[in-house]
Amino acid sequence: EGPSPTGGEDAGAGRRRSARRGTGERSGMARSAEYLARGIEAEGRSKSYRRRGLWAIKKKHGGKFPKTAKKQAMEEDSKAKSPRFYAPEDAKKPLARRFKERPTKLRSSITPGTVLVLLAGHFKGKRAIFLKQLPSGLLLVTGPYAVNGVPLRRVNQAYVIATSAKVDVSGVNVSKFDDSYFKAPKKEKKGDDSVFKEGVAKKELSPAYLENQKKIDADLKKVIGKVDHMEAYLKAHFSLKDGDRPHLMKF
Predict the structure, then answer these.
(1) How far is it, in rounded angstroms, from Cα 47 to Cα 33?
(2) 225-251 per-position pLDDT tens digit
(3) Partners of 55 in the beta sheet?
C-alpha cells in the first residue's frame, strides 16, 4: 500500500504498528503468537492449545498434565498454610441470631370479648369477636359464623380496628385452639397426569372442625343476646364513604 493522499502514513499500518508496540513486539523479532492488542491473541483457545502441542503432552501422560515433585510440594504447603490473598468480595456468612424471641405485645385496646373490624382478607369489612391471643402473636377471632359468616380464624392485629363494643366471653372455652389447629395438611405433589384430570375435588371440612364451630357459635349467641342490638351490629358491614374521616371517628 502506498502513502495516503494527504502525505501521511496509512492509518491501517499505524494501527498495526501501535498494536505491536503495545504487546512488546518489535520489527525483526518473530513470535509464535499474534496479538491484536495488548492481552488479546489473534487465535482462539482451541487453536492456541493445538499450536503449543499441549494435546500431545496430555496424551502422553494418560490425559493429564504431568506434575513435578516441586509443584506437588508447593500445593501441599499451600493447603496447610493460610491463604496469602483473599477474595475482593466478602463471602456471605449467616448472621448470628443473638436476639430472644419475645411474645407479640397485644394492643391495650384489644381484650377478650372486644369486637374487631377486619381490614384485610376474605372477610374484609366484617366484624368479629376477639377470643384470645395465640402463641404466634395472631388473634383468634370469630363472627360468630352463625351470625355474620366469619368462622374461627387467625388474624394479625395490624389489620384490625378495635371498637368500644364488647361482650363477655369468660364462659367460652377456647383452650383447645392453638396455631397447630389451623395448620393445613401437606399437599400431594402433582404428577404429569394431573393436567388431564376432569375435575378437582371440592375441599371438605372435617366433622371435628364443624362441631367445634357449632359449639363456639352456641356459646357466643347466648352472650350476644344479653347485649341490646349487638347481633345487628355484628351483622352490619363496615365501610367508608366520601368525606368520612377515620382518624376522627370513635369506634
Answers:
(1) 10
(2) 999 999 999 999 998 888 888 888 888
(3) none
Residues of the chain scoring pLDDT < 70 = 1-32, 82-85, 87, 190-201
| The residue to which cell 491501517 is assigned | 12
Compute the CA torsion angle 107, 125, 156, 249 (nearest 10 deg). -20
Q: Cell numbers at residue 43, please?
A: 487465535
φ, ψ of residue 49 to 5 degrees: the values are -60, -40
Type of residue numbered 24? G
In which residue are the cell numbers 355474620 written?
148
Decide the pairing of beta strands 153-155 and 139-142. antiparallel
Q: Provide the pLDDT for residue 211.
A: 93
In 3D, which of 76, 91, 166, 178 has the Cα closest to residue 130? Answer: 166
- Strand 114-118 versus strand 40-41 pairing type: unpaired
pTM above 0.70, yes or no: no
SS3 assignment, position 103: coil
pLDDT of the residue at 151: 94
Which residues are registered as beta bridge partners of 133? 139
Give the DSSP H/E element, type plus range, for residue 46: helix 45-51
Return the pLDDT at 220. Answer: 94
In angstroms, rounded to a whole number, what is the distance separating the alpha carbons of residues 122 and 91? 44
For residue range 12-37, what is the model confidence (pLDDT) as tens digits?
A: 555 555 444 444 444 433 346 787 88
Asked if residues 172 and 113 have their Cβ atoms less than 8 Å apart, the reply is no
Extract the C-alpha cell encoding 66: 504431568
Gap between the Cα atoms of 23 and 109, Å rounded: 78
φ/ψ bin of 220: left (φ > 0), alpha (ψ from -120 to 50), beta (otherwise): alpha
Q: For residue 144, is the peptide bond before it cis, meaning its omega torsion is within 30 degrees of 0? A: yes
Query: Is the distance from CB of 128 to CB of 141 less than 8 angstroms?
Result: yes
